């Protein structure tokens, strides 16, 4: 009775495995939403595996048609494995793989000839036993070769490609590892283990489940990138050989436990070995440890410098609309060397110190606006020191000032290393690397390679900065040419209006009309002449005379100028503060900022113009309640010429205002929140501070 129940359970298990594999195969073949590598080959492999399971359930294991279906299923798994290597036509570069695949295919094809031989020798027990031994030997060779290919498929892939390969590799590894255990026990015991053969349907169910999870979740592309393949393949063969030795010893030991207990122990050992193998294959930490251990003991150097350099140039030289910006690629190029999953790039600010310039796969770390102050940036520039932050955490910070390790670095546990980028002994940036899956201390080889890569990256970044500056200069030249045309047209118009005013004085008949026309024309002429004078002074920020300026009077005049516009000005100026400045330049800067504030407000809310007393100077604030600006826009575009958010704008208003204020020894700051508004603050120094700045500039001119 128990035997009949067990046979029914085995039959239902094979039937369930066949149905599951058929369902997934049809879904992969017909559903366009399936994502993953080698979709068609995987669908075919699952279909042939399902056919084999149907034949086992319907005809039994010993029938020739079932053996033929098993051979076909194995060939389909092999084709799927090859397509995983050759996804997206990359098989053209996989010459060493094809002979192995062809050899395994030949080994499996010989099984078809053996099936015919067994039909003719059924009445000869000695010949049947010899054929069984040959079949098992070939099956062992097949399993070993297939496992080696699975190992090389996963170990030789890039870090990004492993996300796509982990589930198919785990599925293939599971089926081949199970067969390796099954045929090893059969070979050593000279008999087929019935219990393990009954459980082969469960192995197919596990493979189907792994593939289903992978195809439902996987959206990554493959990129096969072998490195030091000979050593790693040899090591994988050594591991498989050691595994077979252990299997032989255990099988001989289990033989003494009796047939009943022996089957249970064999089954438990197979399950345990499968779990261990899948755990090792899927663990990044264990793979990292294995790679580091092999590099340390088998090679003179940790890094394969040729492959590292090829990967570096490939990352930096990547182009096209889909490629990340150069700053992000620079971070990735450094992070790939240490297997860091993410990183940041900090670059010098115009005001001094370092600020965040780019992120690579690290969106959740908070970086202040001033990431490193001037002292921290000076330390990296002078010392060229690569900092291991774990050493700082352990208290080993000898020779490293606090400015080089600000507190925000240690609020995130993934912060790991700081790599300076220097070009001609000038700091171009600092890369912050995240902690790799296998944490280790940086040694001299890491420092040497990172220092060389840092200098090379710095040259690329400096070249891009020079190209941007050249582009800005060319655009300035184009802008100046346009201004020359505008000035020419305005001159002609002013001359015509002046002539018209002169003729009107002579020929107008009505005295009232004549007087009104003369007044209007003269006002227009004055306005055009004033515009012409301002355009003629464009760009000469330091030529104006520095003199005492009553700020409240100037702000009142500017507010009166805009009283007819929808966004009126609210003036808050209790004290009449005096500063020394260039009146025309200061007025021009204020007009730029007030005009931008009025245009930013679309609901009629007044723009506030405040005058605040300061120690050693005065502060002028222009505050609006418009849409505001993002930190990214303020950092990268607000003060960049020719980057305008207005249709047809030149994008020089904020840049011009800042340069005018700086030329007078002042400072322009901005604070903004999206949806709340913007505050521009102009600080102008008092007499004593301005005199000191003037003396310093005079000394520089004398030295020059």
Automatic annotation (TrEMBL):
Signal peptide segment: none
Ranges where the Histidine kinase domain occurs: 485-688
Superkingdom classification of source: Bacteria
Keyword terms: Kinase, Membrane, Phosphoprotein, Transferase, Transmembrane, Transmembrane helix
Reactions catalysed according to its record: ATP + protein L-histidine = ADP + protein N-phospho-L-histidine
Cited Pfam families: HATPase_c
Gene Ontology MF: a single term: phosphorelay sensor kinase activity
Enzyme class label: transferase
Cross-referenced SMART domains: HATPase_c
Name of the featured protein: histidine kinase
Organism of provenance: Aurantiacibacter aquimixticola
Gene: prsK
């Amino acid at each position: 009775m128990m035997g009949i129940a067990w046979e029914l359970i085995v039959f239902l298990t094979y039937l369930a495995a066949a149905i599951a594999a058929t369902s997934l195969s049809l879904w992969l073949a017909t559903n366009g939403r399936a994502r993953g590598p080698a979709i068609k080959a995987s669908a075919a492999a699952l279909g042939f595996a399902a056919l084999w399971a149907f034949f086992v359930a319907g005809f039994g294991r010993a029938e020739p048609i079932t053996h033929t279906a098993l051979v076909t299923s194995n060939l389909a798994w092999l084709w799927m494995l090859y397509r995983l290597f050759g996804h997206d036509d990359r098989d053209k570069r996989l010459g060493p793989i094809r002979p192995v695949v062809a050899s395994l295919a030949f080994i499996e094809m010989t099984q078809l000839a053996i099936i015919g031989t067994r039909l003719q020798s059924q009445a000869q027990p000695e010949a049947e036993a010899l054929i069984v031994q040959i079949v098992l030997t070939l099956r062992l060779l097949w399993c070993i070769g297939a496992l080696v290919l699975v190992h090389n498929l996963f170990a030789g892939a890039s870090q990004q490609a492993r996300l796509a390969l982990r589930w198919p590799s785990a599925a293939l590894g599971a089926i081949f590892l199970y067969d390796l255990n099954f045929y090893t026990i059969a070979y050593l015991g000279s008999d087929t283990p019935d219990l393990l053969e009954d459980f082969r349907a469960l192995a197919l169910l596990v493979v189907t489940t792994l593939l289903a999870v992978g195809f439902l979740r996987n959206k990554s592309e493959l990129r096969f990138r072998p490195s030091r393949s000979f050593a790693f393949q040899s090591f994988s063969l050594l591991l498989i050989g050691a595994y077979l030795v252990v299997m032989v010893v255990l099988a001989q030991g289990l033989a003494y436990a009796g047939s009943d207990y022996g089957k249970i122990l064999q089954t438990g050992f197979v399950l345990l070995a499968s779990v261990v193998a899948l755990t090792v294959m899927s663990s990044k930490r264990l793979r990292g440890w294995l790679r580091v251990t092999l590099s340390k003991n088998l090679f003179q150097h940790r890094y394969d410098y040729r492959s590292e350099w090829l990967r570096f140039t490939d990352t930096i030289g990547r182009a096209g609309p889909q490629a990340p910006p150069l700053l992000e690629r620079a971070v990735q190029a450094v992070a790939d060397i240490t297997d860091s999953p993410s990183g940041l790039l900090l670059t010098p600010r115009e005001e001094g110190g370092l600020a965040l310039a780019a992120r690579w796969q690290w969106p959740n770390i908070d970086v202040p606006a001033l990431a490193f102050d001037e002292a921290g940036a000076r330390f990296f520039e002078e010392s060229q020191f690569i900092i291991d932050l774990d050493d700082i955490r352990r208290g080993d910070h000898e020779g490293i000032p606090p400015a080089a390790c600000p507190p925000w670095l240690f609020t995130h546990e993934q912060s790991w290393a700081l790599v300076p980028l220097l070009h001609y002994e000038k700091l171009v940036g600092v890369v912050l690397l995240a902690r790799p899956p296998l944490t280790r201390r940086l040694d001299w080889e890491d420092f040497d390679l990172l220092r060389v890569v840092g200098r090379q990256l710095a040259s690329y970044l400096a070249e891009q900065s020079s190209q941007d500056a050249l582009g800005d200069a060319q655009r300035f030249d184009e802008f100046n040419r346009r201004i020359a045309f505008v000035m020419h047209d305005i001159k002609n118009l002013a001359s015509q209006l002046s002539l018209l005013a002169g003729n009107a004085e002579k020929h107008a008949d009505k005295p009232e009309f004549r007087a009104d026309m003369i007044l209007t024309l003269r006002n227009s002429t004055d306005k055009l002449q004033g515009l012409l004078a301002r355009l003629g002074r464009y760009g000469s920020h330091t030529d104006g005379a520095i003199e005492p300026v009553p700020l409240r009077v100037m702000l009142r005049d500017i507010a009166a100028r805009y009283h007819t516009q929808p966004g009126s000005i609210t003036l808050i100026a209790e004290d009449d503060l005096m500063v020394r400045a260039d009146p025309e330049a200061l007025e021009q800067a204020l007009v730029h900022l007030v005009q931008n504030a009025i245009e930013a407000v679309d609901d009629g809310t007044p723009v506030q113009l405040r005058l605040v007393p300061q120690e050693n100077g005065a502060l002028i604030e222009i505050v609006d309640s418009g849409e505001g600006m993002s930190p990214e826009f303020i950092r990268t575009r607000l003060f960049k010429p020719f980057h305008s958010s207005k249709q047809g704008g030149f994008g020089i208003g904020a840049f011009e205002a800042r340069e005018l204020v700086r030329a007078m020894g002042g400072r322009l700051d901005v604070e903004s929140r999206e949806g709340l508004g913007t505050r521009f603050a102009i600080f102008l120094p008092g007499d004593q501070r301005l005199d000191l700045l003037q003396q310093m500039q005079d000394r520089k001119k004398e030295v020059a």
